[in-house]
Amino acid sequence: MADPIDALDFLDLRRLLSDEERAIQDTVRDWVRDRVVPGIEGWFEAAEFPLEVAKELGAMGLLGMHLTGYECSGASAVSYGLACLELEAGDSGFRSFVSVQGSLCMFPIWKFGSKEQKQRWLPPMARGEVVGCFGLTEPDSGSDPASMRTSARREGSDWIVSGTKMWITNGTVADVAVVWAQTDEGIRGFLVPTDTAGFSASDIHRKLSLRASVTSELVLDEVRLPQEAVLPEATGMRGPLSCLTEARFGIVWGAMGAARTCFETALEYSKTRVQWGRPIGGFQLTQRKLADMALELNKGTLLALHLGRMKDEGRLLPSHVSMGKLNNVREALAIAREARGILGASGITLEYPVIRHMNNLESVLTYEGTDEIHTLIVGESLTGLRAYD
Ligand SMILES: Cc1cc2nc3c(=O)[nH]c(=O)nc-3n(C[C@H](O)[C@H](O)[C@H](O)COP(=O)(O)OP(=O)(O)OC[C@H]3O[C@@H](n4cnc5c(N)ncnc54)[C@H](O)[C@@H]3O)c2cc1C
What we know:
Elements lengths: L18 H28 L6 H7 L17 H14 L1 H21 L2 H12 L5 E4 L15 E5 L2 E12 L6 E8 L2 E8 L5 E5 L11 E12 L3 E6 L2 H35 L1 E2 L2 E2 L4 H29 L5 H25 L11 H13 L4 H13 L6
Parallel strand pairs: 1-4
Antiparallel strand pairs: 2-3, 3-7, 4-5, 5-8, 6-7, 9-10
Helix pairs in contact: 1-3, 3-4, 3-6, 4-5, 4-6, 6-7, 6-8, 6-9, 7-8, 8-9, 8-10
The structure holds flavin-adenine dinucleotide.
The site of flavin-adenine dinucleotide has 19 residues, from β1, β3, α9 and α10.
């Protein structure tokens, strides 16, 4: 006889994973259950990220986990994706931390850095002893990052960098900032130790989304850096854009983790909440909602796995990742909103994870390329016509 249906893995997608991938998924899921779930309500409410977990994430091999050498795990793209999914099932803030550290900071050093830069930064970042942040967005430069005003000029053998970066995850807790700036050679990336004179960071407060994540403004006031601070192999927008493609890949998976938690919560609630003398899950309209949520959860997870296999085969293009981010964040938000409704009034409190995930996903919708920008990237791929500049 066939196994009974697992409501959280309706299509039995776990069977498509290798033993090693399943083991990584289980390890991260257990860690999230033990270390994230018990504290997350409090951290979200207090608007704190528990930075002490950085070394635990490092010890599990999750920081720069898809990179090779320099104490990085060298895991497959699918394994990295599964880790993102499980982390974001806990809270988007934790997946954001891992994405920023691994994909936005360690990846450009690994890909575009000198041997000395890799040796200096990557091992302690993989261990979670050194935290990075990625400074691309500015107050007047968001979806169009090439319009950035931060600039760097040469002075003798040094560089002088000035400008303001906005909405920077981990800005005030970072030891090193990867800062992108205009130069007379095009856009270049700089590794800025955050204790360098002229560098300062302050937190952005009053967020109603991603509260368990540090978001900051960076000010670079004539920051003097040696030539060794420049990423030698990155010139132009190719540098930052390739980092964003890496991080977006993690979001394709992570969004399905947030969606899974919302679906699971709504499903359980619908089986225990009684109105009109029976569980609300027994009403046809509720079952329609749950069935639609399960459809999109399974389709989105399958899409993430497909893109992961393509990445492991070296066939994944940036526009594939755009399609994944566009679909999975959009559907995760729809699932979160539907789950919120199923919980009725209970759905608006932090007692349940749903509204926290729903609010977090509003940030995930915006960062790493908005819904609109990914739509236009897919549109450009389809037509050969670029509609966003
Ligand atoms: C919590 C959080 C953390 C973040 N962390 C980082 C980080 O670590 N590092 C970093 O560099 N940045 C970070 N960001 C910034 C993020 O990447 C930007 O917010 C994002 O790129 C969008 O830019 P913007 O907010 O300036 O919006 P805008 O670019 O001003 O866009 C506003 C609206 O206009 C739409 N729009 C823009 N252009 C077009 C167009 N051509 N056609 C149709 N619609 C268009 C957008 O889709 C959006 O709906 C973070 C943001 C958040 C919210």
